[in-house]
Every structure is written in C-alpha cells, then in structure tokens.
Amino acid sequence: MRIALDAMGGDHAPGPIIAGAVEAVRDEPGITVVLVGDQAQIEAELAKAPDAPRDRLPIVHASQVVGMDEKPVEALRKKRDNSISRCWGLVATGEVKAVVSAGNTGAMVASALFNAKMFLPGVRRPGIAAIFPSHQGPIVIIDVGANMNAKAEDLYQYGVMGSIYAETILGVTEPKIGIMNVGTEEDKGTDLTKATRALYQNSPLAHRFVGNVEGRDIYEGHVRVIVCEGFVGNVLLKAGEGAVEFLFATLKQELAHLIPELSADDGRKIAASLKGLKTRFEYQEFGGGPLLGIRGACIICHGSSKERAIRNAVRVAGTMADEKLNTQIIEALAAGPTTNG
Fold it and tell me: Vertex 82, ends 154 and 311: CA angle to 5°?
C-alpha cells in the first residue's frame, strides 16, 4: 500500500510530519509512505532516524509549499509545483492509493475539486468528515468545511458516505443518521434541511434516519452520523475543539491547588485518568478527518498535528483503501434516493 504524505504541510512541518511517517512504516510493514516536499529538508529529517526503513520512505520533490494562511485557489494557481498538488497528482496517476496532509485544508479540498475526474461516480460534492466522541462511542459529522453551499442531494450523499465510514472504519453496526438542526420537530429548519429530510424518507436509508438533531445531542451518541452543510459543521468542529481546550486548561488550574494535598499515588491516578479522558477527545487518535467522495483515500489532519496524529492518519488512510470504502460508496449511492422530494 503506497500512501502520499505532504511532508511540508502543517504548523510544525517538516520534522514531526516525517517522524510520524517513520513511525507509521515501522508499525505497518505493508505500507510505503511517499514523502512529498523539499527533498533537501526531507533528507535532513530522515537522517535523524538512521534505522528507518528508507526503501519504504521514497521522496518526491516539490519545490513549493502552500502556506497555512494563503488563499487556497490563488496559491494553487501561482505555485504549480506545491506539495499538495503533487500528492493529488500521484493519486490521479494511480501511483499511490491515498494521501495525507496537515497542510492548508482549503488547498487540499480545492486541489481535489479542480479535477472532476477525482470524484467518485455519482458524487456531486465531496465532504470532510470529523470524528467526535460520545457516550456510545465515536460519531461522524459531515461536512465540516468542504462545501459551504450544500444542496439537499449533498446532505443525503454525506449520510451515505458517513454511515459507510462509520461501519467500515469505526465498527458501528447500522448507524443512525440525523440532520443538524435548531430543533427536533419536523417543521423546524430551513428549506435545505426540510428537502434533505424528504430525500432520506424516500431512500434505502429511511429505516436508519431519525430526523432532526440538536447540537446538544452530539455527545449522547444515539445518532452516530450527523449531516450538515460545511459552514455549520466547521463551526461545530472549531467550537468543540475550543471547548475541550478550555475544559482541560480549567481542570489543570483547579487540580494544581488540589494535587499537593494528595499522596503521590493518588496524584498519579488522577493524572492518568485525566490523560485517558483527554485522549477520547483528541483528534490525534484518528489522525484527522477523511475527505469522502473522491478517488483513493484522503485524511486531512489538523494543522497542529505531530508524530502521533500523522502515524494514525497514515494507518486510517491505509485501512480506508484496503477496505474498498469507495466501492461501497458507489454501490450505495446508485441505490437511491427514489425521489428528489
């Protein structure tokens, strides 16, 4: 399995990105990670891991980088030899089965969307999924930023793709699907959410569709796939990340006063419990969010990703390709819905 990694993408690139690739190929003997970016910088980082399996860490040189703060489309047009575009080029030619990047999210999506041939048959617009924790286990929210002008057909397709991802990658049996809304009542919402509801009710997914869900329902986990337009999903994602950071920073401040009064053993137990709790909320566990609806497999990582996140993203991308996720998506989309509402 060959996976392209944008070695130059992210707030901390290239060091931790390449270190994560080294860990990934050590953990997964069947994976080759193609490092895409400035060859000299990549070689310098690989030299820090002399025992790395270099035969499974080939380099594809790219002389340019799309910065995290650059305008995606403008940057892609001006910097033709950027690492993101080179990664997608490897997917398009079939040289790799998947791509992973912690770089500019807009550029990652735009570079894929520039070429309609990258879309899976039947897919109108690809969507980015995010994995959230819940009392019932991980849930999928899609879309969290790829499509800001979604139509009802897009939200239906997101439910199809998100449910297949939840079943295949997360191990959720027949996940329930809901639409993010301002209330659970049928008459609540916009024309978009009402039209989407009609599509689900006349589709092969009707038995899994629960209707509208509210933001507070996310962490209950009764619905394991939540669909929304990209603007709403991105706000949910960023608000959730901010809430987690605030929660654990506050806990740390409060415990700083308590722990000195505890025994060393109790202090260690509390620290271990908090570490385990935080792990449930961290993006590093899944590496990032999959871009669903495109050829190959793609994981878009958080900009602040380091070794652990990159290692896990490579692992998940490989699993997505191995499990033939796209074949399942194509077949499911061909089956419905039966009406456009």
Answer: 70
pLDDT tens, position by position, 254-310: 777 766 766 667 666 666 666 655 555 554 555 689 999 999 999 999 888 999 999
List, in sequence order, the alpha helices (H) in the chain: 15-27, 39-46, 72-78, 83-92, 105-113, 152-168, 191-201, 230-258, 264-281, 307-322, 325-334
| Domains in the chain with CATH codes | 1-123+288-324 (3.40.718.10), 129-261 (3.40.718.10)
Rounded to 5 degrees, φ, ψ at 82 are -85, 160
Q: What is the pTM of this model?
A: 0.88
Q: What is the mean pLDDT of residues 218-228?
A: 95
CA nearest neighbour of 181 among 159, 210, 213: 213
User: Radius of gyration of the chain from Cα atoms?
Assistant: 21
SS3 content of the chain, % helix, strand, coil (to 5): 50, 15, 35
